[in-house]
Amino acid sequence: MTGMEQWKGKICLITGASSGIGEETARRLAGHGVRVAIAARRGERLETLKGEIEAQGGEALALTTDLRDEESITAMFAALREQWGAADVLINNAGLGWEGSLIEGKNADWREMLEVNVLALSICMREAIAQMRGKPDARIVNIASSLARRVPAGRGVGFYSATKYAVRALNDGMRDELMIEGSPIKVSLVSPGLTATGFHASFYRDAERAQDAYRKSQPMQPSDVTDAICFVLSAPPHIVFDDLIFRSMGQVY
């Protein structure tokens, strides 16, 4: 069995699922018959999304989780195993960023980006793999960014970009470790360009600046990134996509 049909009835854990790309991906996968475990800090939004998925005939499990807290992450995986069982797919989607120069950056902003974008992603991979052992086909999809390959000058993204470079390195390192030990678990990176989500209003701490950036660069929509995730998951078991990089034709950086 190939395509998204291969995941019907399987369990997919999606972090950062309360909005944007994570929310769209949860809806799409549930529509394909995937059992979606949705995780984020905003529990109320998760419960709303869970209800909407179930109203459409899908299955969802809401796991309120603070990805800045290792104990909260491990509790998330424990709750998933207890209630549904081990994950077949992990989509490491959660991430955040704060605008700021490297010359005058704030320690608190840097620390939070490292905790969520790098450390939490690493812990989630480790915990997911511990659950996936013995499964004939399991997948991890890490969401990075086109900024994992270049740092556009003068845009205050230096540290955020550094965390996405780290995600790229962690993805490659984990894939190689699993290949060396002969594990069937596959690890892929999805690296989208500018996408219209709530991320940029937070990044700039200014919703109007986010809209101005979108007007200038014709961003993609969350559904475009979900298309890419589904493309990666649709690959037959003998194929793994290492790094899928894409952006809209209108992106100017």
Describe the secondary-structure layout:
Blueprint: E1 11-15, H1 20-31, E2 35-40, H2 43-55, E3 59-64, H3 70-83, E4 89-92, H4 107-132, E5 139-143, H5 158-180, E6 186-192, H6 199-204, H7 207-217, H8 222-233, E7 243-246
Parallel strand pairs: 1-2, 1-4, 2-3, 4-5, 5-6, 6-7
Keyphrases for this structure?
single chain; 253 residues; alpha/beta; Rossmann fold; 7-stranded parallel beta sheet; 15% strand
Physical arrangement of strands within the biggest beta sheet: 3-2-1-4-5-6-7
Radius of gyration from CA coordinates: 17 Å
Write the H/E string, N to C.
Answer: EHEHEHEHEHEHHHE
CATH superfamily: NAD(P)-binding Rossmann-like Domain
What is the strand content?
5-15%
Number of helices, counting only DSSP H or I runs of 4 residues or more: 8
- Low-confidence parts: none
Beta-strand segment tally = 7
* Measured distance between first and last alpha carbons: 40 Å
Structural class: alpha/beta
Q: Give the overall shape, derived from the CA principal axes.
A: globular
CATH topology name:
Rossmann fold
Describe this structure in words.
- With 253 residues, this protein is of the alpha/beta class.
- It has a single domain (3-245), classed as NAD(P)-binding Rossmann-like Domain (Rossmann fold, 3-Layer(aba) Sandwich), CATH 3.40.50.
- 46% of the residues lie in helices and 15% in strands.
- The chain has a seven-stranded parallel sheet, with helices on both faces.
- The longest helix is centred in the middle third of the chain and has 26 residues, at 107-132.
- The chain is globular and about 45 Å long.
- The N and C termini lie far apart (40 Å).
- The model has no long low-confidence stretch (mean pLDDT 95).
